[in-house]
Amino acid sequence: MERHILSKSTFIRGNQCLKSLYLNKKRPFLRDKLSPEQLAKFKRGSRLGLLAQQLFPGGIDLTPRSPSQYQKRVLETTEIIRQGKYDTLNEAVFQFDQLLIMLDILNRKDDEWFGYEVKSSLKISDTYLLDAAFQYYVITNSGLKLKDMFLVYVNKDYSFEEELRLDDIFIFESVLEKVLELQDYVKEKVIEEKATLHLNSSPQIDVGEHCLHPYPCDFIGHCWKNVSDKSLIESYNPSSNEEFYEFLDKIEQMDA
After folding, report:
1. Count of structural domains within the chain
2. Per residue in 181-200, pLDDT tens?
3. Is 52 inside any structural domain?
4. Do the beta carbons of residue 141 and residue 131 sit within 8 Å?
């Protein structure tokens, strides 16, 4: 099986900025280093995914141990689905047209498959919807029909008591209708991003608001090095998410 060109994260990166996509693939050494705070946030966010998986017991974990296992896991995912021995696959890996995704939870009920993507957030954003649309595009085009697609996020009204109530921590929201509306956009964007990755040099894209939204780009240090007016970056103040991280702290304390 040929190696993939785009993953979910690189697809989302390219949607934000094609230059960032190109640099990520061709010039990764120019990337800004992650701060300890950013690394800690990523680690804390992944904890939610593991908790959500507990709502679907008895599943098999297909998480690749290294990038070299991606294509192997694709074949294993396909074979496990064919055999029908498991109703739940965690981190199921799919590939289509050199696009690769790993779905947090794939669950079968009444012989129909449902996809669940867990987000470390108190609400659904447009980027999360595009994320889900890309996953749906890859999964269904690889041959597996999904009955529904869900985004799973944190219930901000959850009331902490003596024990964790997993059923109440998360909100499961069907996004199938919105995901279907985005399929043509995903297809067009994939073509554009693949073409960008075949360029001989990075696309000429001016710096601006897109460098910071929806995520601060990790090539800001490179792209902004010759920009004299850095007021946009200096004034950037991402919305505080203290409420969310306080929520995570409580979960970790109770689950310790």
Report:
1. 1
2. 999 999 999 999 999 999 99
3. yes
4. no
